[in-house]
Amino acid sequence: MESTEVESDILRRVRTLLRELDGHHPACQRDRGMLRWTLHKKIDQNPSNSSILVRILVKELERAERSDYRHYIIPLLHTLMYTLIKAPCTSDELCSRVYDFCKKLLTLPKPFCTIGLDYAVRLKMEKTAPGMLYQRMVISEQSLKSDPYPYQEKIFIFADPELLSEAICNALVTDTQAARLSQSPRACMCYVIIHAMQAALGEGCDLSGLRMSLQDMSMSEVEHWFQQVVAAVECAGSEASVDRGQHVERLEKIYCALLGSLPPGDAPLGRLQGIPLPNPNISFHLWKEDDQLWKELVLFIRPLSQSCEPDRLSQDLDNFEIQDIISECECCEQTRFSVLSTDSGIERDLPPAAEEPFATCSADTEQSRLQRKGGIKKKPSPLESMAFLQTGCNSPGAKPAAKAQKRTGVPAKPPAPLQRLHTARVVLLGDDRVLGRLAQAYHSLRKRETRRVFLTPRLNLQFYYIPVVTGQSSVPTAATHDAASPKELCEVAGYLGRADPWYESNINTLCHMIPKLATMPSSPSKHLVTDLFITDVIAYYVRMGAQPVCFQVYTVKVFFNDPALEPAEDVFLTELCAQVQDSISHRELNLTKKKTTLEGPGIDLAVTYKKVVVSDRAKEVSASLRSTGLVMKAIPADEAEDLLCLNVNITEIIKINNLSGRSFSAVANRLKTRDIKIRSTEQRPFAVCLDKDSRRTYRNVISVEVSPCLEPSYCLQKTRTMKSSVHEAEDVGLVKYMPKSLLLPINTFAGVIQ
């Protein structure tokens, strides 16, 4: 009877969750966005009920497929997989049912087939080696050393202190610090060992005896058995010839050696117990410097010694970038002179005396000596020779120095290809203005990597976005957004919520919830909610949100009315707003008043743009009009619209002559384009604001040019190709296969559901 009541309660919770996806929000608005969290917490309190939840979710998935309720499938599947990862033990029959359902999704369009394939691959490994998904998640998130699975992950939360209140920043700092200190490497290793044993042996596992045995061991002994368990699980998951029974036998041997007592079959049977899933490694950063993101990623890639001082390290990073630029300038200066070389370029033609220095030179010098290039010897860049980046990189992803061959004529062995063993999950908190800063930082990072590659081959970079609006920002918005509503400041979040209902249900609801939780008075209940809820939701988002939505980054070139000023170049992600600028001098003010009386308010503009047509052919259109301002929006109001074009709204002033005299009316002109040029024909300046951020306002502007931002690596390769190709307008060679536009990917749970 008790089991029936539990099953009915879980089914009711799941059905309530699905009704919220249909737009039927709970009667208590406080529970909105917390239904998924409360469901998983209910199972955490009684882990033996996880199999009941899995069966219910499988039935609901099959019912959604039969009834063609596709918007239920991805939320149910994410909930199911998260339950399986945390479950103490799952039967082979249940795993097989979920695996078969995921294979059915391969016949559906994206993103269903993409998510179905990903989960089918994971479930196939989990069937053979139970507990493998839990083990891999803990190892990577806690950066535990393991040769069979050497991957590491870290969550970076970036918040603009000028956009969020001090109370929110302090609350998030406190929560992330508490999450980081809540577990130790020893505890995480014990969790992995115990979970692997219980997942494989089920109720026959003596958990109390296993815990006591591990508690009495030293750290080195715990690490030894941890490596044994990880090797056994990874071996079973990677070898096709190993079945579930063989894997259980391997773990039984390790279990008996650990327990030092009776075989698992003779152990007293008990109920399944939950093993905590530790919070991931989270660091909170107040975004104060423009290049702070790049610095943090470099520090994550390069293992630091205990004696290294953070302040000194930050200073070395700054010096490294300056030296890198100086080195490039020197190399460019050096290439102006031609050098006649009598060297054949063949190593066996080297004189015998040139062979001796190889024995005493360092590995880096040997490598550069054997790489025979042109007649000009370029000065090595700091990124290649500087000890900050190269020495001490003993991680599995570090590039080993090539060993020179002492015999002439024997080529050096090519270095092993780098592997992306590190994953940086960058979470942005704020509104559209913080995403504008992210677009700037991402563009700058891509330009650095084009100049000197370091992060790209080593790091898997993922972006996440949680909207937070406080209404107490110290940075005013643009003139058109003085009284902006949260909806206007969170257009990206609104688009993601319309495209992905699960993102709307779990993430967009945090927009107002985080400020409320941060400002709650201190009490035991307050800490109970914030420490669990905020950290858990962020962890769930980065763990399960793997489908990116790519937003086009646009570049803008700004020309000023002062000829002495060089044009400025910048990028934006969401919006460009141009408004008529107030006149400064008395003479300009008089001329403006006279012009306004005759022609109406605003300024005369010449607009040239490429019209977006169905055939996707470029059609250039030119127009002259009088306008008081314009707004270019890169985020469409409907998820069905094209995400790779600009929606331009120009407020045009129309002069009307009638019997009562001259009057003027404002008409909204709307157009779609990807490239547009706007110029003030009467040389009157206007102001340009990017991404609704008043800190990024350009004044005294007479012309702007907007176009999709190109990927810096594409631009570099295109320049190289044009030097040797007569077809300058066409992409030939490698350029044809390179991404042309710079897209900013933001991860959600489903991507864009068509």
UniProtKB/TrEMBL annotation:
Pfam families: PI3K_1B_p101
GO cellular component: phosphatidylinositol 3-kinase complex, class IB
Coiled-coil segments on the chain, per record: none
GO MF term set: 1-phosphatidylinositol-3-kinase regulator activity
GO biological-process terms attached to the record: G protein-coupled receptor signaling pathway
UniProt cross-references to InterPro entries, sorted A to Z: PIK3R5/6 (IPR019522)
Protein name, as recorded: Phosphoinositide-3-kinase regulatory subunit 6
Lineage: Eukaryota, Metazoa, Chordata, Craniata, Vertebrata
